[in-house]
Amino acid sequence: MKTKLSLLSAALLGASLMVMPAVSQAAIPLAVEGQALPSLAPMLEKTTPAVVAVAVSGTHVSKQRLPDAFRYFFGPNAPREQVQERPFKGLGSGVIIDAKKGYIVTNNHVIEGADEILIGLHDGREIEAKLIGTDAESDVALLQIEAKNLVALKRADSDELKVGDFAVAIGNPFGLGQTVTSGIVSAMGRSGLGIEMLENFIQTDAAINSGNSGGALVNLNGELIGINTAIVAPGGGNVGIGFAIPANMVNNLVDQLIEHGEVRRGVLGVSGRDLDSELAQGFGLDSQHGGFVNEVMPDSAADKAGIKAGDIIVSVNDKPIKSFQELRAKIGTMGAGAKVKLGLIRDGDEKTVTAVLGEASQQTETAAGAVHPMLAGATLENNKKGVEITEIAQGSPAAASGLLKGDIIVGVNRTRIEDLKELKAELKEQHGAVALKLLRGDNSLYLVLR
After folding, report:
1. What global pTM score does this model have?
2. Domain of residue 226, CATH code
């Protein structure tokens, strides 16, 4: 079971925002045979002031579409949907990345829907924050506070991380106050978890629990290598498998949020799939790492760069990639207009091309893949009846799922949807298999996406 870090319940908000790091009471020797033991304390003294507690409050608004029969009984002026409001409170963590301007990075799911965001600093100050912008697909949010004497974390090059590197997680788990745990980088480039739309996680065994969302994952130099985001939690607590958004992805997103107040997502213009053993054998490759290109969209950045269907993309800016999902996440967090160097294999030969990313549009295949991985390869367009599939790439995940050109998506499970915005919002709330209600000609049917 894969679970996003949940916000704390309202009851936990009754606890004050403690600001002192947790201290173990175990008796640890200072030296063994006269040799001083290494300690993380000097590094933590410099880094912990940059990690803050984030307390939020707001109102959840849920809407349920009423059946057409309701208007039959109560008249044409009867409401079309039922609206319910429920107050909520929660706690999370955040990281100061710019001391002069007061910029703080956290997770989108920590502050989503909040009417008030309160920052608890290491020295005890509590300051209301301003929301600069968010990116729900990568689960990043940027806040800003006005305060003096702030401490910021320097950001490391997360592309340089290797499995086995030491990592330290700093956050505010369970409302206990600032807590530090340590471990190693367990894996890189984790994707396909169904946690976010764009996934390229650092996996770590440093203990991460509820409330650590938005906190810092740092290296032994005290540099930010990732933003703690999610855990695998079959029993509801830490089991040694946590995930963080790499610092380089955060950098790309933050720069766009500061400049534009939103993410202007870059688009390469390809549909594809992970390179598996069957494909690798067919192309005579030893490695099974990379993204296989099923189709190149006409006049797209990929088309202009000379990428062709059948190419296998193996690196981005000279950094190897493991999967098409990782490619999509890296490209999707770069801004429109960014230049990207792509390494690929074509007919057994290695090539390098440079692409200038286009800007995402609601009617591109890339946007369809961002809505749901199994919609990749489809071109989506708003229709009077719902969301129409106007084009579909042969061999794409969308085609494999059974979708056809001309299908109109009108519902997700039992919820009616009318446009791309509603489709995207509804699918974001679903985990596991979902049933799309389709209009196909004169017929209505359900198609299950897994």
Report:
1. 0.69
2. 2.40.10.10
- Of 135, 139, 274, 407, which one is the catalytic site residue? 139
Asked if residue 343 belongs to a known ligand binding site, the reply is no
Task: Give 420-449 pLDDT, tens digit per residue.
Answer: 878 888 887 766 778 899 999 888 888 888
Neighbours of 337 (CB within 10 A): 12
What tokens does 408 get? Answer: 């109109």
Active site residue 277: no
Q: Report the Cα 167 to chain-centroid distance in Å.
A: 20
Q: Which amino acid, one-letter code, is at 399? A: A
Task: Give every CB contact of residue 340 below 8 A, 6+ residues apart in sequence.
Answer: 266, 268, 316, 317, 331, 334, 354, 355, 356, 357
* Domain's final residue, options 204, 233, 260: 260
The response to whether 231 counts as a known ligand-binding position is yes
Active-site pick, 158, 191, 213, 323: 213
Per-residue pLDDT tens for 68-89?
Answer: 555 555 555 656 666 677 888 8
Domain presence at residue 44: no
pLDDT at 24 over 70: no
Q: Do 339 and 373 share a domain, yes or no?
A: no
Question: Which tokens in the block code for residue 352?
Answer: 């390098």
Instruction: Tell whether residue 229 is among the known ligand binding residues.
Output: yes
- Consult the annotation and say whether 219 binds a ligand: no
Classify residue 32: in a domain, yes or no.
no
∠ CA 321-325-329, rounded to 5°: 85
Does 122 qualify as catalytic in the annotation? no
Residue 24 lies in a domain: no
- Of 109, 191, 210, 323, which one is the catalytic site residue? 109
Which of 80, 111, 145 delimits the end of a domain?
A: 145
Domain that holds residue 403: 366-449
| Number of domains the chain is built from | 4
Is 31 assigned a ligand-binding role in the annotation? no
Rounded to whole angstroms, how far apart are CA atoms 366 and 409?
A: 18
Q: 270 labelled as ligand-binding? A: yes
- Whether residue 336 is contained in a domain is answered as yes
Q: Do 355 and 371 reside in the same domain of the chain?
A: no
| pLDDT band of 15, cuts 50, 70, 90 | very low
Residue 50 CA to residue 148 CA, distance in Å, equals: 13
Rounded CA separation 381/432 (Å): 25
User: Residue 116: which H helix or E strand, with range?
Assistant: strand 114-120
